[in-house]
Amino acid sequence: MSFLETSLSTPQYAWMNREEISALPNKQEVISHLRIWVYGTYRHTPQNHRARRYLDLCICKIDQQRLFGSTLDLINNYKRQIHHALERDQLSHQIAFLHFQQNSLEKLDTYRQDLQTKTQQKKESQLEDRVKALQWENRALESVRLVRLKRKQPTLERSSVQREIDDKIASAKSNIEKLQQECRSLRGDIQTEKAHSQQKKQEICSLEKAVDQCFTETLRQEEELQKHRAFCLQRMKELQEEIDQDIENIKLEPERLQTAFTTLDDKFRAKIEKILEDFRARLKAATEEQEAAIKAQQEDYNTKLEEENEDFRVKKEEIQQRYNRLGQEDYEAFKERYKALLGRFNEEVILNREHFVNRWNTNNTTSNQERNTAFHNGQPPPPSEQKSDSSNQQEEKKSAPSRESRMDNLSDGDPVVAEVFQERHAEIQSQRTSMHELFTGAMRQIYTQRNQYELTFLDRYNARVKDVNSQNQTFRENQQALNQQIKEKLEYLLGRKDDI
Q: Is pTM beyond 0.90 here?
């Protein structure tokens, strides 16, 4: 690595934030170094935080130099370069992992095959040793049997030895068969392992093909990345040249604009003056027309308002006169009825009282006077009279007149007369009260209807007035808005004139 790459790999630049890098005295040099680092060393040392740090430094550069919009294209190219570098690093990691996996599978397959071969050879050698041992044992037993037979041992002993030899031979045969079965099973396992290893080899071949394809794709992307890198470098040079040219043009722009403004000032001023004169004339005509329309509308409104006020006053007077006349007529009629009823009632009371007093004085003379005297003095009647009264009660019940006929004979000072008079007076008072309440209710209903009609008429009149006022307010607001628009247009034209 170069000295620049080594210096950029140190935490001095990699772990500084934007504020710290902005505070460095050699900030432009650091930014230039990092730009070279993105195109050079980044693909060899891919780290996400360095990419983000580089973008922050690019933003610092934009804030510090205040470049034009073409610098954003440069930053976008940096971002795309970083994205391609990340994709390339990811593919390289995948390829390395696939190579490692392929090597591991090959080593595992080789180890498995060696292990199977050694295991098979070991088992076969063990089986052969066992078979040889059993054969030697069988031969030894056979030789012993033959020797014993040659020595002509007794029959019993020879038969027992023969049985033992036969048993050992049978067991040896069975062991041989078991070993043969195990050999067959081991051969079957070996065939299975061979098929499995063949399948693994096929998978490894497919993985090798995939790795080759990935490697080919990576190489293609690497070529595209190199082409894109060359294009980005060329584009950066072009953008730098364009920026320099734009800076030169901007430096020369004020002089050119001053010359153009000086040339066009007189022509434009004359056109502006003509436009302003035409606008003032149209504005004056429109203002006069609008004032005339407003004045005519105001006069029409005042005329309609006066007519409505006059109609309202006339209708109100008519309603007031009609209700006053109806109320007065009802009151006079009720008053006449009340006077007639009161006079007739007083006449009946006087006649009834005179008739009652005359009858009482005619039928009861002495006994009534004594009884009244005793009653007024608080003394009870004599016992003889009580007895005679009690004995004569039945006869009086038969021959006694009615209460009304007996009351006709009472005098003015009699308490019965006073009681009857009080009752009659109470009835008269109740009738008078009920008639007064009836009259009061009727008058209250009349006045309630009149007030309700007046309130309804006033509500309608007030609603009409509010409607007219709202129309006037809307007209005033529209007039103010129109005036404001005219004022804004004038200010805009005057301001534009000053700017030009």
A: no
